[in-house]
Write a structure and sequence with these properties.
The protein is α+β, with helices and mostly antiparallel strands. The chain has two domains: about 160 residues, 3-Layer(aba) Sandwich (Glutaredoxin), CATH 3.40.30.10; about 120 residues, Glutathione S-transferase Yfyf (Class Pi), Chain A, domain 2. Helices cover about 35% and strands about 5% of the residues. It contains ten helices and six strands. The chain has a four-stranded mixed beta sheet with strand order 4-3-5-6, with helices on both faces. A two-stranded antiparallel sheet has the order 1-2. The longest helix is centred in the middle third of the chain and has 21 residues. It is globular. Bound molecules: glutathione (GSH). Glutathione (GSH) binds next to helix 2. Glutathione binds next to helix 2.
């Protein structure tokens, strides 16, 4: 397993219950905020901040989407790690067709160096996405939702497209509820299915995931083009990365096989409509996604002893246990 313990990178640590627990300590990571008025100590400035992302990672994809929709290319720089995470160094930078070198000027070869420089005794996972402050030389924030929300408004005074607001104030409470639901039961839900340790956990996770998808499908049943109405919002930004990966990865590899995205007409239409928005198509890189999931270490998703569900219509004989 891969994690950092007291500032020391452990790319090959043997899993123990203690390490499993430490690997989970990632919400205690970096949660500072860039603000337009600078009251947080991190004022929005063009050219000061940099994103470290992966095109394969669905959580990075949220940030890449907002970066593109807000037209922040010349305001906040972006470097891309290689899609194969299963290396001794975890996420690495490299000058390849699928990745870049560290463009923030630090000369980092691996992402764990950014964590170590930011906090010399950091303990936890080394994850993308990361928002880096070139001036302070530290990570500001490593939570995708926080970063997406910052990119949405904080940089409006220094070059962000003010005509795009993905979290309009009148929709805030409805958005909060929907964002939490999509994050938990869909974006994280597919990983809960993949990580199930036995058939019972798998079934529980599958029920939650597909209840969630069924609910979103019904929500779109009134003909609304996006989840909250006529305009795309941050809720669509959160939904798009897992939906776009569903039939390619989560259904076949993670055994989220009860239905395909293609079996949901409204969610399929939403995915295509969102994909057709200006600048969105270039953010969806199936090369990176397929390399990451199929060449990477996703043995967790093929754990022995779990029988995948198939829609009844696809099985000639009923093969279920019992
Ligand atoms: N809470 C984080 C989760 C990000 C996350 O899990 N990123 C994955 C890639 S999709 C990662 O970097 N994993 C490395 C690891 O688990 O050690 C967020 O939403 O930003």
């Amino acid at each position: 397993m891969k994690l950092m313990i007291n500032g020391v990178w452990r790319g090959d640590a043997q899993p123990t219950p203690e390490l499993e627990a430490q690997r989970m300590i990632h919400t205690g990571g970096f949660r500072d905020q860039v603000t337009s008025d600078g009251s947080s100590g991190y004022p929005a400035e063009a050219g000061r901040y940099h994103l470290y992302v992966s095109y394969a990672c669905p959580f990075s994809h949220r940030v890449i989407l907002v970066h593109a929709l807000k037209r922040l290319e010349s305001v906040v720089g972006m470097s891309v790690v290689h899609p194969i995470w299963n290396t001794p160094d975890g996420w690495v930078f490299a000058d390849t067709s699928q990745s870049t070198v560290d463009g923030a000027g630090n000369g980092f070869r691996a992402l764990h160096e950014a964590y170590q420089v930011s906090r010399a005794d950091y303990t936890g996972k080394v994850t993308v996405p990361v928002l880096w402050d070139k001036q302070a030389r530290r990570i500001v924030n490593n939570e995708s939702f926080d970063i997406a929300m910052m990119l949405n408004r904080a940089f409006d005074g220094v070059g962000g497209d003010v005509s795009v607001d993905l979290a309009p104030a009148p929709l805030r409470s409805e958005l909060d509820e929907l964002n939490q639901r999509i994050s938990r039961c869909l974006a994280v839900g597919v990983y809960t299915v993949a990580g199930a340790r036995n058939q019972a956990e798998y079934t529980t996770a599958m029920d939650e995931l597909f209840d969630c998808l069924d609910g979103l499908e019904v929500r779109l049943g009134d003909g609304r083009p996006f989840l909250l109405g006529d305009q795309p919002t941050i809720a669509d930004v959160l939904a798009f990365p897992p939906l776009a990966r569903f039939d390619a990865v989560y259904n076949p590899l993670f055994r989220a096989s009860r239905k395909r995205l293609a079996d949901y007409p409204n969610l399929s239409a939403l995915t295509k409509r969102f994909h057709a928005l200006p600048d969105v198509a270039q953010t969806l890189r199936y090369d990176d996604i397929l390399t990451h999931y199929y060449d990477g270490d996703w043995a967790i998703a093929t754990r022995r002893g779990i029988v995948p569900e198939l829609p009844a219509a696809m099985a000639v004989l009923d093969y279920r246990y019992g």
